[in-house]
Amino acid sequence: MILDVHPAPLLERLVPSTSGDTFTVLDPSTGEPIAEVPRVDGAAVGAAVEEASRVLPGWAATAPRRRSEILAAAHELMLDELEPLAWLMSLEMGKTRADARAEVRYAAEFFRWFAEEAVRIGGELRTAPGGANRILTVHRPVGVTLLLTPWNFPAAMAARKLAPALAAGCTALLKPAEDTPLTALYLADLLARAGVPEGVVHVLTTDRPGELVERALADPRVRKLSFTGSTPVGRALLRQTAERIVNTSLELGGNAPFVVLDDADLDAAVEGAMIAKMRNGGQACTAANRFLVHTAVADDFAELLSARMAALVVGPGTDEATQLGPMVNARRRHDLATRVESAVGDGAKVHTGGAPLDRPGFFYPATVLSGVDREGVLSVDETFGPVAPIITIADDDDAVALANASEYGLAGYVYSRDLGRALAVGERLGVGMVGVNRGALSDPAAPFGGTKQSGLGREGGFEGIYEFLETTYLAADW
Ligand code: NAD
Fold it and tell me: Is 0.90 surpassed by the pTM of this model?
């Protein structure tokens, strides 16, 4: 374990000393600086691509069993070091201790899952329909990969990309979000100790992501972009990767409907809503973003949910008692405040919360609104925070129509005591993932991803490794 629960020794060990430019990482619960991190320049990006491409053949040729053992060692190390890693995320991102511990377990599981997948990369043999020849398919690593991750799950989003990339035999340039670079530096250190050879993984920290990414994508040796983040940035990156037709996977924003039908078990629905809405302080792409509740139960649901939300203990993520930490930065908090004001201006009723908290740091309270306009900003756009807008629905068809009236299609939730009815509604939602009487979705064994403007490709599951593999077929007569 590299630290006790104190930042100084950890930061000293993790943050490379540099004579070049740096940027400051803030503690979102105070707004005070925690660390100075290198602002990687174009030359360093070039050097990283050079090394990642030099060691690529050796790593790609490493026996799958050996790659698997290294990933399994990473899984073990992460669990051994759960406390310091979780604490670091609470410090730099503001998530609660419970959320941070859950994220380390979830992130570690990707290394275990892909350790198991590394030795199962197979091919196929088919007979050509004409019968004259056979077709043999084989897979090989796509090459040097560029992995861009958001700040909301700094360990899990990196693990969800690094684990399949390494299992497939690719090398990786990981560019973490500027708000949370420390977790990525920790992960790189951990992977080296697990046995990943030097040069296979590089962490490129910067607060000027546009420049760095443009530089990396211009290099013909970079053959894959895997991005998790917002839809506008994903769209801009897709334009860039179109230049050289770089293999691109995108995990983008969401606007998840949480449908509560008139026969739902309301206690279970509220329990699920607390998970789907409040995990990570509402800063999750799968977070329930719109509560579409049948008119017959909407008042009861609003009352029960508001009581739970109002009771949450707000404080720094590093405090054991905290149940809702700060937003990650001032911009995010301001964005929430503006959206809620707009909804209230459109006639929404505030049940609890509704305005930023007057204290240092970037705190916004758990907020429940009812009577929210179907066409308003809280209905049509992704709101990244602890805000629960309730919109009433008349029946199942109305719920499906409203749920699908969105440019996003990442996740959705349905609550009904009638499983057949819940599954029927769930199947009609135009999203990649549906929680049926369940507020939690993420699982390394499941294919994670969205439809429409929520992204391209799937991470995790049996599908995840193929995002990092190319297919070649060989035709032969025998
Ligand atoms: P963001 O798009 O602002 O940033 C994501 C990453 O892209 C960061 O590393 C950032 O530094 C980088 N980036 C920003 N501008 C860039 C540019 N011009 N060129 C290249 N890279 C750039 O998103 P965020 O605010 O960090 O994360 C929140 C968003 O991520 C939300 O929309 C959320 O829904 C989404 N998200 C999606 C998933 C998923 O799996 N679908 C998971 C988590 C978060």
Answer: yes
